[in-house]
């Protein structure tokens, strides 16, 4: 009797382009600016990306261009959460302090504020043209292309 073995190392193999954006504006303002400058129709999704059982959540904007078979996503890379921190000072009463914790969706790029993920069936999007348009936006500090295959936490971009 023959033994058949299936190796499933990399089950999810979706080709997409990833652009990192550094800017200090809110996510809804950046979505508006991208819609205006790149001729997109990004809308906020009802559910955010939640990691580690609601420890951190990241905003997600999406537009599915049905005519060109392209899905555009704007993903926040930074989540700031205020938590109460308990510590004992050696007195009868415990002190509580508010601590601001910062989480990152892609931990290798902690200085990046947002990512644009472009998933396409046909390879007809030129990311160099998109980069040149992004660098003409005064609110965006810088933007550059990221190779998603070199990311350790690339599974966080599956949604």
Automatic annotation (TrEMBL):
<protein>
    <submittedName>
        <fullName>IPExxxVDY family protein</fullName>
    </submittedName>
</protein>
<dbReference type="InterPro" id="IPR047690">
    <property type="entry name" value="IPExxxVDY_fam"/>
</dbReference>
